[in-house]
Protein 1
Amino acid sequence: MTTTDAAISAASTPPRPPNGKGPVALSQMILQARETLLQGRNEHAVALLRNILSRDATIADAWFLLGAAAQAADDPQEALGCFQRSAQLSPDWAEAWFQTGVTLAQVDRFAESAAALQRATELKPDWIEAWLNLGSALSRNGESETALVAWRKVLRLSPEHAQAHYNCGHLYQTQGHWQQAAEAYIRVLNNAPDMVSAHINLGTCHLSMGDPSAALACFKQAVRLRPDYALAHINLAGALAALDRFEAAVEAYTVAIRLAPSDAAPHFQIAALLRRRWRLDEAISHCRQALALAPQLYEATVALYEMARHGCLWDLADRTSQDLDRITDQQLKARKRTAESPLISLWRHADPARNLAVARSWSLDIAGPKGATWPGRTPFAHKTQDRGGPIRIGYLSGDFKAHAVAHQIRGLLRAHDRRRFQIFGYAANPSDQSEYREELAQACDRFTAIDTQDDRAAAEVIYRDGIDILVDLSGHTEGGRLDILALRPAPIQAGYLGFLGSSGADFIDYFISDAIVTPASDDPWFSEKLIRLPGCYQVNDDAMVIAEAPVDRVSEGLPPDAVVLCCFNQPFKIDDATLKSWLTILQQAPQAVLWLMDHNVTARRNLCQAAGDAGVDPGRLIFSKPTRIDLHLRRLQLADLALDTFGYNGGATTANALWAGVPLVTLPGRHMVSRMSASALQ
């Protein structure tokens, strides 16, 4: 907003004699008080002003200067009363309304602040500072469109006003309008090239639009301008990580930690980076340091739980899960979006009611009341008449890459009857240059990459394509773009496959499942109408090739005469109950071994440690690295029996085992993700 100096310099000699109390003497006293304030002698100025007001309490200038003195003494409540009294006594004095509005904003009374500042602009229509502050008050009050009107007024008065361009850019950025935000920040930097925050925000926009190289240039400039600014180094590290320059990113985070040792942010960010490389021990250490510095950084609690699960650190996972229960309960009670994602909720609780509550908190955050006032957030309207021709189905996913969802839907995209359906693919993720990406693109009649487009622009692409049914394949998972669906680019919208629970969103009409994963008793726990497919809900590629290359147990590190039990699910699915049951089997079947995915060092170490603690030779746990899918299917045939995980079943891994001809044992649970394998086996 504004500073105290602005309030002091706004005061003037009273335009009228003060009510017969010796106008010349009082006017001279006001001038003396003003000069005393400018000299920083607040106590003496206050004494003079109190003396004046004891003689005549209707002098607006005296109240105004008394408010300025209170501002200088960091007493906004006292200042507010004085400025309000000044405006009441002199209702046509723009400066009094201005300072009233500014001070109201300081005490978080933004609606009243906007009203006072609006009055100031009415009295002085060309006052740039008043319009600028009015926009800020409106923005803080959630009136984004009106705030933009105020800032655009500033730009009409002063087309190159850096702060107005910056404010517009920041608002566009919070709305996800990356291109508009970037254009605004470029205008800022044309006139204020040393504004570090504009370089950082412009870089963030470039990252969001899928251009990490441009982002890197922005963050480097921010570091050059302020080499001691930890936030600049944190953002620099983010761009380096996006460019897969891992060691340089670690170094940038390390610099940020050195510059701001009491700041949790760089510890949290470096933990996320290390987790991406599966250096879980280091990542967990940094995550714990972040929480020690900022216990209310609930995202770090979620990350710690997730990493504990990936690393098979069951005690840590249990303790952190208890913390998350408390945090989530508090946030749900306060009607806030939970820190834990809906996906983590599915990991933690086989409770469809709780899972729905968490998912709904996220969907309401996407499409809730604040979204209704944002520019460009109005949902699309759809015609009801049949336009003729094939039905247009759009598939939206952040997983059009080497990913389990892509692996599963290849057959689906091929199988559509092109006489009845036209298939559109919308990739919310950048290309990974994989065979999956190429094959999926070729399987669609039209395939569009929307990863660099903001939500509104992406939704407009889908709307212009005339999609009849939009199927979201990601939901509340990493890379999902539910914000696009909130704009209703298609008249019918459905969730399927990628997120295996209710979205909790009123903008998704249907959820595709079956009677095993979602029995009738689950209907109350889905915001969507359930479409239950006959048989199994899970589509799979019916043309998967199994390599013909010869394999044998010895070459895979398996004992030739053992009973080979296998599970190639990710380690996070191996909860404590699952592992205990497996170790019981190994205790009672000494001729058996357990064949697992070699996913990360931490999980492998802890699985072996748990086996040893249970009296099972850790050597009976055999680990294999991931490999090409056709080779994996071939080696799977060396197993005798596949074992499923309890709380979160295998999806693609179950299908792979069955496709390779390996029987599988599962134990159905209470929610969808714990009944997937039962569905596949029916």
Protein 2
Amino acid sequence: MSTLPLLAQIPGRCARLHLCALAALAGILTSSSAAPTPPCGNSYGSSADMDAIELAMWAGTATDVTTAITNAKATRGDSVGCPDLLYTYITPNFTVPTLATIASKWENVHAPGLRDFLITCPEIGRKGAGPALGGYYAHLAGYASRLSALRDITQMYIATQYVDANAPWPPVSDSGVYVGAYGLLRVPTTDACYDSSVGPGVEAFYSAKPTLFPIFDAGLYSGDRFMIADIIPELGVFDGGLAYDHGWVGAMMMESTLQHPVATLRASASTSLAPAVGWAENEPPVRDHNYTAKLVWILAQKYARDGDTAAKTAMLDKLDRNLKPGVLFDANADGLVDGMSSQPFSGLTEIARVPGRYWDGHNARPQYQPMNAWAFVEAYVALRDRGDTAQAAALKPYAVATLDNLAWEIVNKGIPQVGVGQKEIPYAFLIGLWKIAAYESETHANWEQAAWALWNSGLMNSYGDNTVNAGLYLLYKAGVPYTPLASRTTPPAPSGTLFTACTGYTIESGTYSAGKRSSFTADDNDYYTIGSAAAPAVGIDYYVGTGTLTSLRVKVRSKDSVNSGITRKIYLWNFTSTAWVQVASGSVGTAESDLSITVSSGLANYRDSDGNIRVGVSHNRTLLTHTAYIEKVEVGLNGS
């Protein structure tokens, strides 16, 4: 049985209650008897509690939801905030990495992973849209990206969406089915596209209600069957799991509408985003708060960018009927959990003693707590940026508290070892640091410590789940200021016939040392630098448009760390054969020099249908470690 804070029991000590509360908030005091420790059962209280929460979220008011969660909190008692999972920690390392260290990780590990993306199986949102979102963050910071890969990922998800362009129409008319979901593929376990992380759940839904799985009749995945809904009210099924990947895709789609240089791709992404937001508006909140958090994420971004009042209304509703009642809060700083009967924070499990943890055993896990935290951040930022001052001020304490709580765990306990889902932890801190701390000139040293500890834990060492974070670390560390979505501008259309500013690039071989996208633009001693024991090479993209093309000139200025025996080569990417074609070569030494070539034949092979040209530059020398310094690359069309 939990007790009041220790100091409150000692005569003459802590006579003023708020001093005890402050001590408890700082995590200084502990319960005088054993507090709950993970794993804690009854994640959502009793079965009756869970049913009441689901029904209130499906058809009740904010008061109904708060009442249902309050009753469930009482059932859990001092186990509120205690995860239903036992996990371990690794010791945190708070060393702050340099920008060069983060850039090297991006350029050498994550950008090449995105470069090699090919459309095959329709990937779930967290696996494809997450890395693509990281690519857009890195692009915003001015570093490596292959925008054709980001285009392909965007198009892949557009083809999975339940809209009339892809699926039989009119839509399925059933309660719980809403247009605009990014669907999940249903295939046999023996199929090469079967995804074991969601496959069993998809199959369970298919067995329960096959009508939720139409066969698409157009687009990239015509003939494939997709799950388009996750609510079956007549069976009492209020899952909400589609929202998890829907949020990742929606956030990536938003960046496609803002950053991609090809106007037709931006338009396609915008067309897809509209019903995706509509689906998020209609999809009800569910007891698993982090699913609803993904809906709040996409709704907040839509409101922030366009001032969409329907998106704002749905966002606020989901906050009131889901996310806000789930936080263990202490609004009056009395050291007691709001909405519970005399439950002191000091009597909770250790990681819940700082206000801000989620009440239920599932969302109290360290991989789900951050999803809810960054939903609060995104919603607060949208309200702030739109001038909704009072509503923003009321919501900000939730964003800060949920991040503060998680930061306490990482700083004081270590890096949670929870496997799948760990990428969400750094993402929450980085979004908070970029959009709140840096933008508002606030100091949140605990968020910083947690973010750098996560970087140093090795999570960013391979392409995949954490590619989104690698790009966001790069953006934050580079000091790129957050710009409100409504103030962001799209890239201009290509004009003229001389192009010195590339739209993207990636290393083809060798190891990154220094430089970024702007390094290729001018003769200013700002080199893009790559080393290799053989042939360091980089592929550079230029968006030149689809106008008449009669000749193509490429000029490269570069130097090498070795003065003799180095052959510099220029390549063009053949979009028809999908291979590099060497078009020029010559020697290069330690002094800067130029190599130029004009190509007048086969030009249709060297420009894709969107109007992109890809130039390759390499410095070749067998079995000798050397470094290429690329100073400037320019592309001229039609005699320029």
Protein 3
Amino acid sequence: MSETGRVLIAVPDANRRARLRAALAGLGVDEVPGVEEALAHLREQRPDLVLAAVVPHGELAPLLEAVPTLVFGPVRETCMEALQGGAVDFLVEPFDDRELCCRVDLRLREARERRQAAEREKELLAEAHMAAEAFESRKRAEAALRESEERFRLASEAISGVVYDWDVIPDRVRRSQGLLGLLGHHPEDVDHVVGWWTQQIHPEDWEAASTSVYASLDSGEPLFSAEYRMRHRDGHWVHVWDRGLILRDETGRPVRVVGSTVDISDRKRVEEELKAASEAKDRFLATLSHELRTPLTPVLVLVSSLERDDRVPDWLRGQLNLVRRNVELESRLIDDLLDLTRVTSGKLELRRGAVDLGDVLAHALRASRPEIASKGLRLETDLHPGSLLAWADAPRLTQVFWNLLNNAVKFTPETGTITVRSRPAGRETVIEVQDTGMGIDPEVLPRIFGAFEQAGRGITRRFGGLGLGLAVSRAIIRLHGGDLTAASPGAGRGATFTIRLPAGVPEGDLDETLAGFVQSPPAFQRNLRLLLVEDHIDTAEAMADLLRDMGHEVTVARSLAEAREAAEREDGGLDLVISDLGLPDGSGLDLMRELSGRHGLPGIALSGYGMDEDIRRSREAGFTAHLTKPISLQTLQEAILQAALR
């Protein structure tokens, strides 16, 4: 830590406070368990920074108003709300000690600079009033001017940066010797007009900086603040923070501006490093998911093909079902990793539509019944008989419901009971998943929705998993405007997870929604002529066999060149292209653009990359669907149907 100061940690969990205190070794650290205790602490001693966990219902508001506060929590949207409410910064969990120290160091530096600026502004404001009174007498004015110049000199020498005093009407600017350290110029050697300063501003920053300053001058605001880049005498660019106090005459016209400009290049560098580290993490996870998904695809395809074969004996079908479930579980774990990255970076997007939550819940229940039955658990349901309409992302909600049901199965011993309920509750829909399993200890309950939390290492060793499902599930529900909560009487006494979602759909979509519920999708039985482009040999062979078993004619190409040759050879005889995106001699995106443009072919993209940006690029290239490996039989069939009907 390069800065010094006092930090107050306001976090309910004692173990977490201890970890934060250890990470901030070298600073003066006090700790309290909550917001009320923090406010009481402020009456006795005022820290430079408060490090507080995000809490719901605006409980942080008094603290955010009282003292600079850095908040942290598992959901970016909640942290952003706290930032809009007055927090100076936020961290999205999980974060490491280095990131924490960088952020705290940065905010302590800003706190020091704010104190210095406040003291400086207070002195200069008092000086300005003294100078105004000195108009009564020339002698008093001369004395006040000499005193003003001396104070200006002393104040400018006390800070790192340049202090300036701009007489607006004659356009005369005095600048302190700090100009030499900031931009490499002696103040005596530059023009004493504001135009000289504006000429040093980076061309890309000039409009935003000037707009900020002149908007404050014109609007009657007493202060302005702007960040921009300045050209140093040796040619490099310096990031600066410019703050000024605007003094006006009795008509409200600006007559004088006193302020300071300080170098914030170090802060900007730290911010860029943090951004680069976050982007590198995203790229690593995307690449890792691709490498993990690719070998799973031929396994899942072969299992799906064998499950369709009537010659497979019943005892083997059970084993195939076991393989398929575990491959799909592995895929869901990869999805959780990517979803956590989307959540923490604020890139998790919802594709909303009008849905019946009852149908979505029924789909998740059907998917979970094999696991429930295999463990000998009893499933009880108390489901609302009517429609439960919501404006929601159905696949995302299916993911949440499946996560909760999967956890209930995982943590409930054999012969236990899982109960699922749904009901309308005013303007909300409430869905509960209750089990008679191992329960949750009271000290664990407050952090059960944290990323990588599984109530201890013993849980991870015994039941497996990454501890991401609940964190991702709560983030998805909160993006929908709802909430996900947990309750448990204690260890060994089961747990209840409750989802609350806003009920209803936008008024203009209601008629279309009701019509959609009574219309059946069009039937499609025709066998298609398919071009399969896949360079992974095992995947290509397995998918080709499965597609042929489904009755389609399949031409296989393992490169961009082979795909082009096949398309030219068929010359309009193809119905659909199914293509991997990463090919040895080019990109499946380029192939899709060519085949769509020249032959009018629809296409389905196959990829181990499933981030939102990957899907967007596929759509823009002309693919009707982007399937992330490994691909289930049902997903493939639905994609082929939709593509063929377009």
